[in-house]
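Minutes, project huddle
Topic: does the predicted pose make sense with magnesium ion bound?
PN asked that the exact inputs be recorded in the minutes so nobody has to dig through chat later. Recorded below.
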Amino acid sequence: MSKSTTPASASPAIELAGVSRIYKRGGETLHALNRLTLTIERGSFTAIMGPSGSGKSTVLNLVGGLDRADEGLVNVAGEELTTMTNAGLAAFRADRIGFVFQGFNLLPVLTALQNVELPLLLAPLSRKERRAHAIHALALVGLEDRMHHRPRELSGGQEQRVAIARALATDPDLILADEPTGDLDRASADAVLNLLLRLNQEHGKTIIVVTHDPKAAAVAQRTVHLDKGKLEKIVENTPRGEPEVAAGIAEDAPAEDRAEG
Ligand SMILES: Nc1ncnc2c1ncn2[C@@H]1O[C@H](COP(=O)(O)OP(=O)(O)OP(=O)(O)O)[C@@H](O)[C@H]1O
Ligand SMILES: [Mg+2]
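Predicted holo structure (tokens), as shared on screen:
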């Protein structure tokens, strides 16, 4: 039920080519990303890991059209974001992307249902249709019975599932999650990861999760490791969903690249 007119085709979901994001402060130049080239296939589940400050959130924000690259090309679902107008980027975000954040970012005065309905206000839908889409999204995350609760009446894990329902409300192809389990206890984190896995496997969503959680990397098909704004390595997680496999991948490649130009 997407109203998008972009040719979906078999092209990769995401292509970053020589992407830099550069911050200048005083006399210093910081490369948050330094000529990063990366392809992420449609329908895949990718984890992004790396030390604090390695550029993980920057990648997600560029792919989601929340930020703009200073160099290089960012192609998402056949659309070149680097040449888009601000209005075009806003429409792209509203239509194609679902964001999930560490701190849930739910509005406290709204019920779960109203929070999930919010992104649908931008869509050409009647009130009734909006409600139906939102209830459908809440059912997907197993929280139909909590839809009239406000965030403070929910557990952290439930809040994050509402946030995922909100990300799903517009039926985007691409879900971008920045440390979605960072504020959750193990059991709630696992529920969120299982939900993301199900959205990938059963609903064909392309998922990118920035994470420090080895279990999140274990449910992913591949883990992209960043270091100082550069690609350090990509680890394929062949027997997917088995935490043992990904448990040892974290910290063994001593890529000694100076992240600076
Ligand atoms: N608005 C900004 N102004 C200046 N520097 C920034 C800005 N946003 C990010 N940076 C810098 O860019 C680098 C990459 O930041 P980014 O947020 O992508 O890191 P990260 O890998 O997500 O880290 P963390 O694990 O701590 O969330 C960091 O050195 C950060 O300080
Ligand atoms: Mg970050």
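Observations noted during the meeting:
- The radius of gyration is 18 Å.
- Confidence is low (pLDDT under 50) at residues 1-9, 242-261.
No decisions taken; revisit at the next huddle.
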